[in-house]
Amino acid sequence: MPAPSSKLWLPNPPDGTQVAGGFDGSENDDHTAIKLETRAGLLFTPRYGPDRRPTIWKPEEWGGQIPRDEVNEAWAEINRRYGLSRVYCDPGFHDEVSWETEIEEWANEYGEDVFIPWPTNQIGRMYPALTRFVADLKNGRLKHDGCPITTTHVGNARKLAKSADRYILGKPAPTQKIDSAVTSVIAHEAASDARAEGWPDSTKAGVSTQMYGFS
Length: 215
Hints:
This protein has 215 residues and is of the alpha/beta class. The chain has helices spanning 68-81, 100-110, 123-138, 148-156, 179-196, and strands at 18-24, 32-38, 42-44, 47-48, 53-54, 56-57, 83-90, 115-117, 143-144, 158-161, 167-170. It has a single domain (18-196), classed as Nucleotidyltransferase, domain 5 (2-Layer Sandwich). The strands form 3 sheets. Strands 1, 2, 3, 6, 7, 8 and 9 form a 7-stranded mixed β-sheet that branches. Strands 4-5 form a two-stranded antiparallel ribbon. α3 (123-138) crosses α5 (179-196) and α4 crosses α5. The longest helix is centred in the C-terminal third of the chain and has 18 residues, at 179-196. It starts with 17 loop residues before the first strand and ends in a 19-residue tail after the last helix. Residues 1-27 are annotated as: Disordered.
């Protein structure tokens, strides 16, 4: 999968910007990520908290396990700062480490029409999302903030054939993560669906919608 060039990590868009998003949850091996996309087509990694951490969590930086309370805090801050239109969420497998309960709690807190389960293991929905993402990135409809973690993950991603004409994304090695790449695809699909359904061009609390993008 071609990696977007990343010469500069741009600041987050201003508070009040309307966004859609994606979420991919893990537990103690892969990374967990939140990605957002503006109505104008800027894909970015939110930074949250006093240290402005990126919303891409590596288990090894948190004692070997994803800090779910940190993820909850990040969503709370994102909801305060931005106008959330739609968020597609991959809960992981239906097992003891899935994020289904958290996704239900976010839906109850921030809107059932906003936080929507979106399992990535269904090729019938993931393959069209992948092809749209690649096409929109190539033709300039989709821009990005230069997040170096995401750039690395996109560069790691490989197309794995699932049939004669379809593919999914996979890792070339267990240590070469692709989670923020997958989350980027989910976020772009949420934003694309929101646009198709008439995403309103408005701001939250009347804040300016100045956008950032690559020249």
